[in-house]
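Hi team,

As requested, here is the filled-out complex form for the zinc ion run. I kept the field names the same as last time so the parser does not choke. Let me know if anything looks off before we queue the next batch.

— J.
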Amino acid sequence: MPIVAVLLLWSLLLAQPAARVQSQAFDVRGAARGVQPGEVVRLTIDTATRFETLAVEAFGVEFQPYRVSDTRWQVLIGIDLDVAPGRHVVSFVGTHPPETFLTTRTLIVEPKEFRTRRLTVEPQYVEPPPDVADRIVREAERLNAIWASRTPERLWVEPFVRPVPDPPNSAFGSRSIYNNVPRSPHGGTDFLSPTGRPVRSPNHGRVVLAEDLYFTGGTVVVDHGLGLVSLFAHLSAISVRPGTVVAPGDELGRVGATGRVTGPHLHWTVRLNGTRVDPLSLVEVSTMPDTAATPGLLP
Ligand SMILES: [Zn+2]
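And here is what came back:
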């Protein structure tokens, strides 16, 4: 939220006799691998009273907190690839009718250097033939609608697990140059998996897409709830259908080399309230304890 908006919100709250601006009503701790573009930060918010609702906003994005106990909430915050390094305000608005409580914290986002990778793929994936132009636009619109969806209930539980046992072989966020043509940065993590390797769901969720797409080939998208979504690409076989409810470890399909690829591997994308974050950051943060002094999180 821009500073001006925060100040405006504060003045609005102060103008109402019932509203309280009380930072001491909140204790915020965090867990993160780092505070950089592409990272997930989990915040734990302890409150003095039982809030009926809590809203959390950062980088102009509303993230969905969930209740852990009467006076404890948690929220996963995604630092998108394009977030500029520097100080960013995280705002918290809690309600305990008739009172409203507000506080802010500052997140200091450190810069991150992303590698550049050069790949050679079949030409139709760099300069697609005109007859697939409509298909590409339609598929992009469908995926954008999924990234924008906000299933109100949380289906996932900690921890998130890796979908395959193989090592990752390509970094999240790499600047990608296909056949000497720059394309959007790599918005996921690739695993060096052989064709046929079962791809297992990293957590609970509901399948919202299971079909062949132009760039991502055999594709399965799992909605974990509260704006957290996983996409698995380049599959050689798909074992689920839209609507299938999955649990951690359930088979979603098999690794393949379909779509825009140089060879067999598994591509895993995670979107958190639309932000592009590293799936491995989600996996690591989901097993981390909170620390009182989270680097980069200031009062
Ligand atoms: Zn990939």
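Two things worth flagging: The longest strand covers residues 86-96. The CA atoms of residues 31 and 290 lie 5 Å apart.

Thanks,
J.
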